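Issue: copy button drops trailing tokens. Both records pasted manually instead:
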Amino acid sequence: MIGISWGGFNGLQTAARQAPALKAVITLCATVDRYSDDMHYMGGSLLTDDMDWGGSFYSVAGLPLDPAMVGAGWKEQWLSRLDVLEPFPAKWLQHQRRDDFWEHGSVCEVYSKLNCPILAVSGWADGYTGVVFRLVEALNRPDVKGIVGPWGHLYPHRGVPGPAIGFLQECVRWWDRWLKNKQNKVEDEPALRLWLQEYAPPKGHYDMRPGRWIALDGWPTNKTDRTLWRLNSVGLTRSADAETVIAIKSPQTTGLAQGEWTAYALCKVAPELPLDQRRDDAGSLTFDTPVFEEPATLIGSPLLELDLSVDQPFALVSVRLSDVAPDGAVRRVTYGLLNLTHRESHSSPAKLEPGRRYEVKLRLNEAAHVFGPGHKVRVSISTVSFPMTWPSPKEATLSVYTGKSTIELPFAMDRSFSEAAPFEVAEYARPRPVTVIRPEADTIEILPGFAGGSKGRASSAP
């Protein structure tokens, strides 16, 4: 089985049922946890993709059946479907905790049943990237491999941002080995092949991302050292300063530069990627490392531990880790979200006691990024991440206690990562000739009076 997105879900779910005829799977942009890996609840926070994609899905589900496919009874079947069709977001909103509804179909509940070969693929601009790492780590077998490129929610042979790869050739090699028993040694290849991204000035779309392919023998990798940095009043330092309290109540427009949860439409040049984070940093607490004198390679998922309090029973925290360039531009590298009522459990959330201090952990998404000489790492903390995430019921003030709050940054111990063998050139069926009447272009505009009085255009088509 092979499929992307929902098709990728299906391959894993069928593998978990151990269908005798299923000999191998290629899954792209998929999920192992329908609650937290999908577009519904990231860190227990409601993603607006839940309603965005769910509304589109609802409209598709209401379309009539094709008489050529189902015959003369198409209309009766269609009307029967409409009788029971309900808006999907309404259903999902009835399950805001991780309950049996989400456990059903979440293969992380039954990893031991995934006993057929699996090739997992995603991109850094996709919302499902972490699933590749979770499958490789949980299954830890020679017949389970992962590839993460620079792309969005796309097949890699049409991958944008590029470079695209010869993915169809990779598929043939995978099927040859596991369906035809050809001894082509795919099981001897690296457990993970990752596109190690280099800095690029922040903008809403790239045709190409600079970087290189690296190979890892497993996950988590033993090639990194998880260095501990402390959030202090002067920034990120290796040693703790005296405890201070820094408070933030982010404007409700914080997050306008965040980018989309997953980039679906990059193939038509849509500005869905993160913009310069200085706009959102203005409504956030920011902590910077000193400037790096040598390149620093971050590979893995940073872990933030916050000592905090809030003034509301409901609140969320959004954390962005960014690359600050010498010219001041801020490129988002990775991020994480946490509904603070889910600080201990997604299945049994608990209200916050205003004013009480809590110690919470927030793991950011995986990343592979090189911070160049003259650059520095920035950690940005806000109480809002809109429009990616639905806001809290009331505006909350978050107080962070510095000195004790920390972040683990998985930096490479050296720059000796193995170069991955190059992929073949991308091949695909060429589309038929078209006449372009008007070039495609999408724009994003932030209007005066909406974003706290900001003037002018925040971003435009690339």
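Record 2 (pasted manually too):
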Amino acid sequence: MSTPASTDAATLREELLGALMKGDAALAELIALDAVTEDGMSVTTLYVDVLAPVLEEIGHRWEGGALSVADEHLATGIAHSVMRLVGRAATRRPRRSRERVLLAAIGNESHVVGLRMIADLAEGAGFDVQFLGAAVPVESLGDIVAKHQPDIVGLSVTMAASAEQLALALEEIACSGHQVRGVLVGGAGMPEGFDGGPSVRAAADAREAMNALEQLAA
């Protein structure tokens, strides 16, 4: 019998942090893959309770001077490699069989690990995901939404400067000529107490984001 998820997550965080600190991609991939395929940990738990806190700790160590920019970039790159390896294990339904979800990091956002987590989990739940990635100009959102006609738009804002453009992004979506079911927003740069209206949902992590997506799609 496997140990409780919280114990597993705590142990895995230590192991994965050690692998990332050493820059050992093979070890990090093995740790993550074994957790999902051998120990039965869900990809959601791996992403939200293991990988995200580890990357947050890496960020703190970089900010504190314990890691160089190169170390931080290497750790992030390995995290993306881990996610590519285990992301498909999240699949529960035929891919692209459900509502279309368009995901974008707006403004000058270059941090997209959290957005990629949501993309993987949403694809695994059968959503038709269109991942625009980093640094999507806010003024282009209206045209993008009009062209691809998503049911739901997800926006990532990890920096305060991007958060300042959030209202404009929502306006661009509203004026696109295509009515979406709702907008999902999240990221460390989210303004405190943000309220974008009844069709806008805020999520603190990928688990909350998936719950919000299911609610908007219902």
